Amino acid sequence: MKTKLLTLAAAMFITFSASAVDIIELDTPSLDNTVQKVYSVYCPFCYKYEKAVTPNLIKNLPSGTTFQAICLENKGALGVESCEVLAAAQVLSHKKYKAAKLAMYAAVHDQKLKNVKGSGAIKGDLAAIGMKAAGMSQAEFKKALHTDKAQDKLAYDRTIALTIAKKKGIPAIVVNGNKMIDTKTVGSLKALDSAIEQYLGE
């Protein structure tokens, strides 16, 4: 499995330029010691990042750095409910959050279920898949969703996710709130780690 992920990571970066990593300045609030990733479960490249890039990125973040995953609800037929499930699951535990996210990614991209995509999407079906994977009942989902933590998360993501995504698509990696790494100029996972560390220090 490890070899497979490394191969996938290599394939993702093989077409990227070997030149210096470029930064795109964003008109978003600055943050201290923070790395954000904007994603959607409907984004195939986000799914690839989830499996082959993000774990390495998080593992190698400098001590004291906060990592935030920002859910884009404006992509996909059921984008809003996917973000709601993830916000609720995150309130309960990171394990439930990850299980829900991977299950919804798989439903869209691996299983290619027609009831969660395009004109055939049925409201509530993608949420049900995420909740089942997380072991989260409808009652638990509603209770967690209406907590301040989940509502604040949804409101925050809503304020910046689309602004960032419109700049250069997703997945988007943003350092300190307003510096987006142009991944097309990243030559390797190591180069990505180095760029993040560099711009965190500025």
From TrEMBL:
Keywords: Signal. It comes from the Bacteria. It holds the Pfam family Thioredoxin_4. The keyword Signal applies. SUPFAM superfamilies: Thioredoxin-like. Residues 33-191 form the Thioredoxin-like fold domain. This is Thioredoxin domain-containing protein.
